[in-house]
Amino acid sequence: MTKIIHVVGARPNFMKIAPVIEALNQSAARNNRTVTQILVHTGQHYTPEMSALMFEQLGLPTPDYNLEIGSGGHGQQTGRIMEAFEKVLLAETPDLVVVVGDVNSTIACALDAKKLNIPVAHIEAGLRSYDREMPEEINRVLTDAISDYLFTTEESARLNLIGEGINGDKIFFVGNTMIDTLLKHKDAAKTRPILNTLNLKTNDQTKPYGIVTLHRPSNVDEAEPLKELLTCLAELSKDLTIVLPLHPRTRANIEKFNLMPVLENGQFILIEPQGYLDFICLMSNARLILSDSGGIQEEATVLGIPCLTLRENTERPITISEGTNTLVGNNPNAIINAFNNALNKDYSGKQPKYWDGSAAVRIADILLTQLMV
Ligand code: UD1
């Protein structure tokens, strides 16, 4: 019997782990293996839109453990996850811990496991922004340094890892499990009524609109950069209605810095963070996406929607070289230029190597071969 613990904590983890659990069940059945899978939710994200709704729409099993850690400073949150997850490991003694992405839950649980000599698999390994001011970059570098199985989404990741002295035998280029989930759900997402609900569709005609997401500390945690960005977006929204689902971090800072009046100057449709299917529906039908998210750059590439990334760097360079992504930073003139260019160009969906819906199956097959327990 092989026992595997999967860890999720924050919104971008859920869609990455769902296909892996499913593929492991199928691969175990095909190979006559008994695999017990345990799902641990650290509770880093906890509001319904950021968590429960995602579970429901992705068909994720109810977590076997919810550590209910909640929000806090980086040290506090990471430390609390470590303390709680260690107890789960001691009780369950798994053969493997699977972590995904780059959030605080990823490093906290990987570190716990390794201190107990439990092997760790990291899905989405090797991505690097080379910006160590990003909390996620620290989480990525440290998790990769201690993981035993490093599953990568694009070829650049292997070079990054080899450059950090990681043994190439541990690195497996498998593709992108977030895209597995997108390909599985994108047709169902198209039938969601969200466009009608937001008055973006009448008589089967979709009005042109853009969608914006913002939550990076470098864009939203200080008053001046946030005000400049929102002012710029308000200008753009005069040409193209902007749908703006407000991440809790961003909403709190807009309120704290008293910036709601800036938004009132533009043509925004302000909404709460959306469930997975509604958000995919909104992205699929948008003329343009502006975002500082990591995963959205990848989803936009596959959907063929232009994506302007409001950051100075990206850890996902394939979305630029092969996809629809353009790095624009947060300078208003650069954003306005890129916005006009993107609206005048034709884009089509791209499928970088192994972004084919089968990444999780590759992971499951590798893990079951390697873990002959
Ligand atoms: C975290 C991840 C980031 C990821 C993002 C996706 C880290 C270091 N950061 O950032 O990589 O891109 O999630 O959303 O792990 N809050 C709620 N409800 C929730 C969760 C948070 O209201 O369910 C509020 C809290 O006030 C909290 C704030 O949002 O203080 C920010 O949440 P936090 O988990 O600290 O970081 P994110 O910005 O979401």
**Rg over CA atoms:** 20 Å
By helix and strand content, what is the structural category?
Answer: alpha/beta
How big a fraction of the residues is strand? Answer: 15-25%
Percentage of residues assigned to helices: 40-55%
Q: Could you describe the largest sheet, including whether it forms a barrel?
A: 7 strands, parallel
What's the average pLDDT? 96
Q: Order of strands in the sheet with the most strands?
A: 3-2-1-4-5-6-7
Backbone shape: globular
Beta strands, count: 15
Q: Would you identify the regions where 5 or more consecutive residues have pLDDT less than 50? A: none
Q: Tell me which ligands are bound.
A: uridine-diphosphate-N-acetylglucosamine
**Amino- and carboxy-terminal Cα gap:** 6 Å
Number of helices: 17
Give a verbal description of the structure.
- With 373 residues, the protein is of the alpha/beta class.
- It has 17 helices and 15 strands.
- The strands form three sheets. Strands 3-2-1-4-5-6-7 form a seven-stranded parallel β-sheet, with helices on both faces. Strands 12-11-10-13-14-15 form a six-stranded parallel β-sheet, with helices on both faces.
- It starts with a strand and ends with a helix.
- The mean pLDDT is 96.
- The structure holds uridine-diphosphate-N-acetylglucosamine.
- Uridine-diphosphate-N-acetylglucosamine (UD1) binds next to α1, α5 and α11.
